[in-house]
């Protein structure tokens, strides 16, 4: 039976850091936000943003804490950065992270049957690829000897300002003459042709065979990094492919609005919790 969840619940949380994976460049860490209660708790993997080139597991701490205090085991992981290794290295981390979390969830009073993922900005790109291609041999590159039969499928996905079409985002950076973002894209997508191969929008347009877990996309109205129209097209294409995709625009909000306290940030947190509750109720009914 999938863990019960009431988004109005309030829990104390314990925060700890543990080793996630030893990569060639460094040891990747995970930050665990563990509700203190009877459990088991629904479980969520967090993939941070940073234009594939920067940031770490702490990037989304306020949201992770808010979700954990409502009764969700949240585990945020470091991801390989583009200067360390280009695509698909970070997606390999994400895929491994899903399997690793399913194997480890019970240690932190989590429910492995409910493992889902949250991704922000470039982490949204990585979470979409992980969700759509859970069995891709390239993404499954890192073995998990202690749980070799655990797969990387996700119960649902939450994506905040995801880079659902990285080539469209690159074109927007060119229009803005945003040299840092142009270079970030070139560093990550190397060779350059992978910006089309690892492109969630184009994967759907090519009608590849993909998994389509329920998805909730949150998008800022004033985002000039990932344009709302591009995001809306992805949501429509996801639905046309047979997936359930809720898409919401947050008025007066830019790309990283949830990084600052405010009414729209609070609203984003609450809407995510409601979406999660709805998905978990569906899983419980199906169990």
Structural write-up:
The structure is a single chain. The protein is of the alpha/beta class and 287 residues long. The protein is 36% helix and 17% strand. The chain contains nine helices and eight strands. The protein has helices spanning 61-69, 89-104, 122-132, 166-176, 179-188, 194-197, 200-205, 228-240, 263-286, and strands at 13-22, 27-35, 43-47, 73-77, 116-120, 157-160, 215-220, 245-250. It has an eight-stranded mixed beta sheet, sandwiched between helices. Helix 4 (166-176) packs antiparallel against helix 5 (179-188). The protein is globular, with a radius of gyration of 17 Å.
Distinct helical segment count? 9
The major sheet is characterized as: 8 strands, mixed
Order of helical and strand elements = EEEHEHEHEHHHHEHEH
Instruction: Give the class from helix and strand content and strand pairing.
Output: alpha/beta
Strand order of the largest sheet: 1-2-4-3-5-6-7-8
Q: What multimeric state do the chains show? A: single chain
In round numbers, the mean pLDDT is: 97
Shape: globular
Proportion of beta-strand residues: 15-25%
Helix percentage range: 25-40%
């Amino acid at each position: 039976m999938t863990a019960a969840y009431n988004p109005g619940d309030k829990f104390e949380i314990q925060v700890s850091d543990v080793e996630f994976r030893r990569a060639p460049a460094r040891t990747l860490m995970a930050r665990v936000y563990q509700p203190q209660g009877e459990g088991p708790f629904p479980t969520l993997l967090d993939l941070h943003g940073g234009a594939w080139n920067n940031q770490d597991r702490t990037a989304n701490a306020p949201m992770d804490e808010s979700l954990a205090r409502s009764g969700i085991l949240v585990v945020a992981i470091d991801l390989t950065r583009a200067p360390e290794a280009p695509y698909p290295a970070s997606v390999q981390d994400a895929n491994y992270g899903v399997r690793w979390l399913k194997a480890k969830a019970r240690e932190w009073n989590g429910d492995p049957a409910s493992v889902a993922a949250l991704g922000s900005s470039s982490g949204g790109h990585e979470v979409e690829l992980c969700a759509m291609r859970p069995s891709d041999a390239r993404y499954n590159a890192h073995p998990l000897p202690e749980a070799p039969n655990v797969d990387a499928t996700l119960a649902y996905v939450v994506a905040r300002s995801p880079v659902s079409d990285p080539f469209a985002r690159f074109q927007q950076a060119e229009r803005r003459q945003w040299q840092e973002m142009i270079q970030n894209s070139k560093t990550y997508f190397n060779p350059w042709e992978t910006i089309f191969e690892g492109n969630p929008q184009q994967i759907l347009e090519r009608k590849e065979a993909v998994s389509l877990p329920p998805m909730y996309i949150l998008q800022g109205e004033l985002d000039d990094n990932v344009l709302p129209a591009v995001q809306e097209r992805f949501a429509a294409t996801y639905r046309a492919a047979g997936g359930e995709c809720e898409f919401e625009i947050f008025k007066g909000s830019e790309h990283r609005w949830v990084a600052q306290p405010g009414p729209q940030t609070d609203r984003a947190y609450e809407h995510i919790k409601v979406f999660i509750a709805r998905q978990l109720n569906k899983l419980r009914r199906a169990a």
